[in-house]
């Protein structure tokens, strides 16, 4: 039986395709195009790239970005490896702490805590003042590139921890037992069996860390480290202007390197789905810790916990501090900073709520529509929508924003404002950036809804549209809400697209406010207060989204029992 | 004199407060194909893993070829185990999987290659040696798992439900292959299964376990013909078991069920007991010789025989009657007379 493609489905497909074309594909293509065009002759050229590599500042920035990303992977691995080892190998009560370590850093974007970290770990920060007083030396945690590596590693190590733990838990204990049965033991067994089987998980995590750090603009900018690629692109565009090709060249380098890293990882992982657990759950053999092993494990876990919480501590202290300079702790405490940001610049908070919820609403509308078209419609090229929407993952916020500036600067709104710097464009940019997360949530939710439920409704006389409204959407509700909250919480603290697209302070959201305040020593307190508000918003969002997902998972399990 | 084979002596094993193995002792002969059979949770897999060294027992001894291995770690025991999931390492080729044990034992490369080639030929997988496990079918993976273990020439081969992941027809074929391989290598083998057909068709002897206790260790036919208790009688094959007691009068002994049926028996026993009537030993008779009659409730046509479920008093009795095309099937609700075979009846005491 051939079912016809309805007019509504075609129309929806067309509208979404157009949206993605205008707001994702177009701007990115524009960026690539400008990077390969000679400014004067308008012909295709590689000269811009030659210029890039002939400029020592760019070569240095390129090297620094690479170095910082690679070192962040190394430091993040050093933090993550022992934690993964303890949870997968031992009956360890501290595993609960380790699991929370997996998401505590993620609720605070690294740039928010960056300045506060300087007050804790910087040249004249609490830790170094203490070290100098007590032992007579300092450790350059936050010196230049070190600072970026330090802040990024603490923030992104959960990607390695989560992926590696998952890989270890997917190794069935029979893998290890069969090796023991054949005479293998100890480190040899680890090297020959456990390590190669866990490798794919580790690589997946490490590549994510590399890409995130490589593309990040906010952290180096707030730590005033400008000789890296992302800050260079930002400075070029914001100081020289959108006609200068160097910003575009850097953007292309960022995208190409992200894709290259993904490709290398994909190549290394090809055909290596090593998940070997049997039904009934697996995981490696766990043993009880000896007394001294437990002391060692708890020391490491608590040390890591303190390290991971240090940006949160520092930011909290800073937000309540009157003056905090050249001393281990602030001189005195005050709530004035919170009063200041709430009474004097409430627009940062209200704008954030407006933009982030706007972006999230747009995301779930797009997410549900794309999921519906891909899973339920018969349109031939429907999967393309999914691929295109997901490709936003590989586009750094900076690059998308540069593309918007280039594509929409020539258009003037009726009120005389330029389209590219209209606040709605930021909402759209945020929505495009977060679409992949919302789309995955909606797709997963729709896959749980059996077609027969819809067919039953149509069989009883409801129209297609009514069926979607009365049956499909309510059943997807849990997943949709989770997608909404995830988009909301992450869009609320996006900095890279924000600082490129926002032109006036009255239009600015939290992230921009934090950036502006943190520029001056006197604004830090207020910046920190905004940062804490941002953390609370993200933490609440994460919690709510987790609750929704749990709820819909339980619902599914309950309904699964009848089958 | 060093003893060969495997001896288990007074094994006790608990997980926390749960006793899993309760005072088990047995003696497995050299070259024997021996099965641990029982329902899930009876402790059969635990016992096997104990022999391999993956569990530790609180009491008892495991002796292989005269040597006490109870305290040895798994890697020093030289017992080959084939896992239920095969546990082939997905990151190694078939050849790398098979040579792993030999490399651990530090054989030189010439010898390793020779042995691996030989075992690959034995299991018929020579041309697959450079493939990865996920490129093989279930049956082929099973053979690799077997080859990986036997190539190390273990003192005993432990098989943990190795056929359960295969589909039915392949299972029958693989159990024959398994048996012929075992005979060819004369390898003492312990086979864990919950499937009595698998155990019956392969084993020299079977240990039937329940709740961590050995119920009976015997040949397959003795388990069927001379079960030691009601559990064994019920677990192996189909069984009709009636409660009652034996009364002797004159020269004959009569079993009288609690419902009053009288069945002649040859037992010298008296008092309360049970009678085991295997379905194929019962006959449907035209004459009411024994005054036992019942009504057919349902029937199953099995090809070579017809299985009738007959309501006799409060009992449902199974009767298997051989099918010939000239004998027409009885109908549901037909009343029939039951005839028992005195030589085939078997008297069982109540379980302790």
What this model shows, in words?
The complex is a heterodimer of chains A (563) and B (352). Chain A has 563 residues and is mainly alpha-helical. Chain A has helices at 7-35, 47-54, 56-89, 95-101, 110-121, 126-135, 145-169, 173-181, 186-215, 218-222, 229-240, 245-269, 291-320, 336-343, 346-376, 382-390, 397-408, 423-447, 451-459, 464-491, 496-501, 510-518, 524-560, and strands spanning 90-91, 287-288. Helix content of chain A is 73%, strand content 1%. Chain A has a two-stranded parallel sheet. In chain A, helix 9 (186-215) runs antiparallel to helix 12 (245-269). The longest helix of chain A is centred in the last third of the chain and has 37 residues, at 524-560. The radius of gyration of chain A is 25 Å and the shape is globular. The model of chain A has no long low-confidence stretch (mean pLDDT 84). Chain B has two domains: 6-233, Rossmann fold, CATH 3.40.50.300; 238-348, no CATH class. Chain B has eight helices and 20 strands. In chain B, the strands form four sheets. In chain B, strands 6-7-8-3-9-10 form a six-stranded mixed sheet, with helices on both faces. A five-stranded antiparallel sheet of chain B has the order 13-12-11-14-20. In chain B, helix 2 crosses helix 3, helix 2 (94-104) packs parallel to helix 4 (138-150) and helix 3 packs across helix 4. Chain B is elongated. The interface between A and B is medium-sized, with 23 and 27 residues.
Number of beta strands of chain A: 2
The main pleated sheet of chain A reads as: 2 strands, parallel
Numbering strands along the chain, what is their spatial order in the largest sheet of chain A? 1-2
Percentage of residues in strands of chain A: under 5%
The secondary structure category of chain A is mainly alpha
Number of helices in the DSSP assignment of chain B: 8
Assembly classification = heterodimer
Query: Rg of chain B from C-alpha positions?
Result: 25 Å
Q: What is the total number of structural domains of chain B?
A: 2
- CATH-scheme architecture of the largest domain in chain B: 3-Layer(aba) Sandwich
Major beta sheet summary of chain B = 6 strands, mixed
Beta-strand fraction estimate of chain B: 25-35%
Q: Which residue ranges of chain B are poorly predicted, with pLDDT under 50 across at least 5 consecutive positions?
A: none
Strand and helix order of chain B: EEEHEEEHHHEHEHEEHHEEEEEEEEEE
Which overall shape of chain B is indicated by the principal axes computed on the Cα atoms?
Answer: elongated
Distance between the termini of chain A: 27 Å
């Amino acid at each position: 039986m051939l079912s016809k493609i309805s007019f509504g489905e075609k129309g929806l497909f067309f509208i979404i395709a157009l949206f993605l074309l205008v707001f994702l594909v177009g701007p990115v293509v524009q960026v690539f195009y400008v990077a390969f065009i000679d400014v004067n002759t308008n012909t295709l050229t590689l000269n811009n790239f030659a210029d890039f590599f002939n400029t020592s500042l760019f070569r240095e920035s390129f090297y620094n970005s690479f170095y910082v990303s690679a070192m962040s992977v190394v430091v993040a691995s050093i933090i993550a490896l022992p934690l993964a080892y303890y949870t997968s190998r031992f009956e360890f009560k501290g595993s609960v702490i380790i699991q929370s370590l997996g998401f505590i850093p993620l609720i605070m974007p690294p740039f928010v805590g960056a300045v506060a970290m300087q007050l804790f770990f910087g040249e004249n920060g609490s830790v170094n003042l203490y070290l100098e007083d007590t032992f007579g030396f300092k450790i350059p945690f936050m010196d230049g590139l070190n600072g970026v590596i330090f802040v990024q590693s603490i923030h992104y190590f959960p990607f390695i921890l989560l992926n590696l733990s998952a890989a270890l838990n997917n190794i069935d204990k029979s893998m290890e037992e069969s090796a023991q049965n054949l005479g293998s033991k100890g480190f040899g067994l680890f090297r020959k069996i456990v390590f190669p089987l866990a490798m794919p998980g580790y690589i997946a995590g490490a590549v994510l860390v590399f890409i995130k750090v490589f593309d990040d603009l906010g952290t180096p900018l707030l730590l005033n480290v400008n000789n890296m690629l992302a800050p260079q692109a930002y400075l070029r565009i914001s100081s020289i202007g959108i006609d200068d090709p160097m910003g575009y060249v850097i953007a292309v380098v960022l995208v190409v390197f992200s894709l290259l890293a993904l490709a290398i990882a994909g190549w290394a992982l090809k055909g290596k789905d090593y998940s070997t657990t049997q039904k009934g759950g697996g995981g490696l053999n766990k043993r009880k810790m000896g007394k001294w092993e437990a002391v060692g494990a708890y020391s490491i876990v608590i040390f890591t916990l303190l390290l991971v919480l240090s940006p949160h501590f520092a930011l909290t202290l800073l937000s309540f501090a009157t003056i905090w300079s050249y001393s281990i702790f602030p001189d005195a405490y005050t709530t004035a900073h919170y009063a200041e940001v709430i009474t004097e610049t409430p627009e940062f908070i209200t704008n954030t709520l407006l933009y982030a919820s706007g972006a999230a609403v747009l995301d779930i509308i797009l997410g549900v529509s794309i999921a519906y078209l891909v899973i339920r419609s018969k349109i031939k090229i429907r999967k393309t929508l999914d691929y295109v929407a997901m490709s936003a993952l590989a586009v750094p916020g900076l690059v998308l924003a540069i593309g918007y500036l280039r594509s929409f600067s020539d258009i003037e709104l009726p009120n005389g404002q330029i389209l590219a710097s209209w606040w709605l464009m930021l909402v759209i940019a945020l929505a495009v950036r977060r679409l992949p997360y919302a789309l995955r949530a909606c797709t997963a939710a729709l896959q749980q809804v059996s077609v027969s439920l819809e067919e039953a409704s149509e069989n009883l006389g409801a129209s297609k549209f009514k069926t979607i409204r009365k049956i499909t959407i309510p059943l997807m509700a849990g997943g949709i809400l989770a997608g909404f909250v995830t988009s909301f919480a992450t869009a609320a603290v996006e900095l890279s697209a924000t600082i490129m697209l926002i032109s006036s302070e009255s239009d600015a959201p939290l992230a921009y406010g934090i950036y502006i305040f943190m520029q001056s020593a006197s604004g830090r307190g207020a910046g920190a207060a905004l940062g804490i508000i941002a953390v609370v918003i993200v933490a609440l969002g994460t919690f709510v989204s987790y609750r929704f997902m749990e709820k819909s998972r339980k619902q599914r399990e309950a309904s699964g029992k009848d089958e | 004199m060093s003893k060969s084979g495997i001896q288990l002596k007074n094994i006790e094993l608990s997980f926390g407060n749960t006793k899993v193995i309760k005072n088990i002792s047995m003696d497995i002969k050299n070259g024997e194909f021996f099965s641990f059979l029982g329902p899930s949770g009876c402790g059969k897999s635990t016992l096997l893993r104990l022999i391999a060294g993956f569990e530790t027992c609180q009491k008892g001894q495991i002796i292989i070829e005269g040597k006490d291995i109870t305290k040895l770690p798994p890697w020093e025991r030289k017992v080959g185990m084939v896992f239920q999931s095969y546990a082939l390492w997905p990151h190694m080729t078939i050849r790398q999987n098979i040579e792993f044990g030999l490399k651990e034992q530090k054989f030189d490369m010439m010898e390793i290659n020779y042995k691996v080639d030989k075992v690959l030929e034995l299991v018929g997988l020579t041309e697959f040696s450079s493939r990865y496990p996920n490129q093989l079918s279930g049956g082929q993976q099973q053979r690799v798992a077997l080859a990986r273990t036997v190539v190390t020439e273990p003192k005993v081969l432990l098989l943990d439900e190795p056929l359960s992941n295969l589909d039915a027809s392949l299972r029958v074929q693989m159990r024959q292959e398994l048996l012929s391989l075992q005979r060819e290598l004369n390898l003492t083998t312990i086979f864990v299964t919950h499937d009595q057909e698998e155990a019956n068709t392969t084993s020299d002897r079977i240990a039937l376990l329940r709740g961590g206790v050995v119920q009976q260790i015997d040949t397959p036919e003795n388990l069927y013909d001379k079960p030691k208790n009601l559990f064994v009688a019920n677990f192996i094959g189909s069984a009709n078991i009636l409660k009652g007691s034996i009364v002797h009068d004159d020269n004959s002994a009569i079993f009288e069920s609690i419902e009053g049926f009288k069945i002649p028996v040859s037992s010298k026993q008296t008092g309360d007991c049970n009678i085991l009537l295997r379905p194929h030993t019962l006959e449907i008779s035209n004459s009411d010789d024994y005054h036992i009659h019942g009504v057919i409730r349902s029937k199953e046509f099995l090809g070579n025989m017809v299985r009738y479920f007959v309501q006799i008093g409060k009992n449902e009795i199974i009767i298997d009657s051989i099918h010939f095309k000239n004998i027409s099937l009885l109908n549901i609700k037909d009343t029939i007379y039951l005839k028992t075979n005195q030589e085939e009846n078997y008297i069982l005491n109540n379980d302790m």
